[in-house]
Amino acid sequence: MSKIFVVEDDVNIRELTQYALTAADFETVGFEDSTNLYPTLANEQCDLILLDVMLPIEDGLQILKNLKSESATNDIPIIMLSAKSSEIDRVRGLDLGADDYITKPFSPIELLSRIKAVLRRTEPKLKLQFLQFSHENVVLDVAKHSVFVDNKEVSLTQKEFALLKFLLESKGVVFSRNQIMDSVWGHDYTGESRTVDMHIKTLRQKLGKGADVIKTIRGIGYKVG
């Protein structure tokens, strides 16, 4: 069952949209703005995001830009929803990486059709990403978004998964904290480099017997292998 996140501040539209999706056998999670969206994405997977343009706090185009700049979320298909119908608005959304743009008001039938079309288009892309990275007793499966230690699955957040994938992709290469932050958190991230250390610590704890695959290079950063 595909999971769809619905980001819409109008509670009536959000609930009607979720109702239509649930009736079509999709799992849904609703958000009124970006406040809870980002932390949820850090801990849950989703197959597609319906993203309204006109939102409080942070508009949909900025959210889109943020998600596409993050390695952990840049492959998630996104359909923009907006009352704006001008060509320039559609172009801006598509140029920023949106997979489709639906103008309000829309019918549930049209919405479902567009969602299924986007999922069909992105499926081959996901199949191309059927890759596995491994080192010693740790295996990371990109397509399944799963990590195994001694053949036992380990539950990681989106960011922990992206961090481990980044290190496994370049075994033997030492990365500084700033390099890791730029690649995993994005160039626009303004947090401290201690963020990397904290995520490495929790990642090692979760890997358990596989924790030793991540090596600390004193005074420089981290590597695998």
Notes on the protein architecture:
Helices cover 41% and strands 22% of the residues. It has helices spanning 11-23, 37-41, 60-68, 87-95, 108-128, 158-169, 177-185, 194-207; strands at residues 3-7, 27-31, 48-52, 78-82, 100-103, 132-135, 138-141, 146-149, 152-154, 175-176, 214-217, 221-224. The relative contact order is 0.11. The mean pLDDT is 87.
Fill in the CATH topology of the largest domain.
Rossmann fold
CA-atom Rg in angstroms: 19 Å
Domain count: the total is: 2
Which series of helices and strands comes N to C? EHEHEHEHEHEEEEHEHHEE
Q: Report the principal-axis shape.
A: elongated
Helix and strand content put the structural class at alpha/beta
Structure summary, number of beta strands: 12
**Helix proportion of residues, in percent?**
40-55%
Strand order of the largest sheet: 2-1-3-4-5
